[in-house]
Write a structure and sequence with these properties.
Length: 391
């Protein structure tokens, strides 16, 4: 009896889909795929494995969904009566095949948030910082030593080129996302700009040595601040430029005062104005630089308060009364600034500001009234009693 069955079944070609020629190195007669039989069997075996895994996944999902289905809530019932002492405790027996529910996670106390991981300085950042310091040191040595051997114009051209290159490469690396290199080059560029301006005055470039040192220092600080602000607008990611601008403007109000003012009330007014400027820029600074402005404002306020009280006690009569008025007005300004919600979170509390301002103004007023001999001392004592009673 002869068999009437056809040729054995073989998996289709993975490329063209036609039946393969069987096992062996024979290529596909349609698309020419080498060893089409072996390739078709491997692909079919992988497809069967995938189908089996999909079926296992579906069965597992069905089991998990059945176990996670919540029970129908029962109607509210009166609280059960306490069981007698002799009652047998019932123990809940877990249902076979159903996994026990996982215990709930422990509650997170929001009052004590998890602190962020400490920031560590990488070796790359250390090397970049050392490199920036070496560049600045080389610039200082070039200005201090080589001026006797090289021409002044050539020396100025070299220093200017190095400074511009450092600032330009900092901007270029900022656009490439190299934050550490960007900050290191910006710091080196700002320091080299300070060295250039100081050397131009010290070496008498273009007759700049004839400008008074006090005026040239104020002008140099203004140039550094303007350059830092301009470069900071070009590269928004660089923190060094706004920091350099903030530090550069600090001595400008005091330096712009005439030299004959000495240490009078004008210096106290300049210190108070600088502190007010530092508080005002808090609205424009990045959150990373806000603590720097707060510390600078506190330092200038301390200098103004201490100097004003000393002037009220040992200075001239005009300085005593002038500083008393300045300190009294300056004590009210922070309380007014706290009305702005953005500044209220960055300034000390209102009771602390009011108490400090009242104490400083009272000390200054006591020193000023002491110049009126006996009547002044009597008034000062009376004001002291009033303040103590109010406190």
């Amino acid at each position: 009896m002869t068999s009437t069955s056809g040729p054995p079944w073989s998996p289709p070609c993975p490329v063209c889909g036609l039946p393969s020629a069987g096992s062996g190195p024979a290529p596909c007669p349609s698309c020419g795929l080498p060893a089409v039989g072996e390739a078709a069997r491997v692909v079919a075996r992988i497809a069967a494995t995938i189908d089996e895994l999909v079926r296992d996944r579906d069965r597992l999902l069905a089991t998990l969904r059945t176990a996670a289905t919540p029970a129908t809530p029962a109607t509210a019932a009166p609280p059960p009566a306490p069981a007698p002492t002799s009652a047998v405790c019932q123990v809940t027996t877990p249902v076979p095949g159903v996994p026990a529910p996982a215990p709930p996670p422990p509650p997170i106390d929001e009052r004590y948030p998890v602190p962020p991981p400490p920031r560590r300085v990488s070796p790359q950042q250390v090397l970049l910082g050392l490199g920036a310091l070496l560049v600045v040191a080389a610039g200082i040595a070039f200005v201090a030593v080589a001026w006797t051997r090289l021409g002044l114009v050539f020396q100025a051209a070299v220093m200017g080129t190095v400074t511009v290159t450092a600032c330009g490469v900092s901007a270029w690396t900022a656009r490439r996302g190299l934050r550490a290199t960007e900050e290191a080059l910006a710091a080196a560029g700002a320091a080299l700009l300070v060295v250039d301006l100081a050397a131009a005055h010290a070496l008498g470039l273009w007759g700049l040595d004839g400008v008074p040192a006090r005026l040239w220092t104020a002008a140099s600080c203004g140039v550094v601040a303007a350059a830092a602000l301009g470069l900071g607008r070009l590269t928004r990611s660089t923190v060094t430029w706004p920091l350099a601008a903030l530090l550069a403007v600090q001595p400008v109000p005091v330096l712009l005062l005439p030299a004959e003012t000495g240490t009078g009330a004008a210096v106290v007014a300049a210190a108070l104005g600088t502190a007010l400027l530092d508080v005002a820029v808090l609205l424009r600074l990045r959150p990373l630089l806000a603590p720097v402005a707060q510390v600078l404002a506190a330092l200038w306020a301390f200098v103004a308060g201490t100097g004003g009280v000393l002037l009220a006690w040992v200075g001239t009569t005009a300085d005593a009364w002038s500083t008393t008025v300045l300190l009294t007005v300056a004590g009210v300004v922070p309380l007014l600034l706290r009305r702005d919600a953005r500044l209220a979170v960055r300034l000390p509390t209102a009771p602390l500001l009011a108490g400090t301002a009242a104490a400083v103004a009272a000390l200054a007023l006591t020193g000023a009234l002491g110049r009126l001999d006996l009547p002044g001392r009597v008034v000062a004592a009376g004001l002291g009693l009033v303040l103590l009673t109010a406190a």
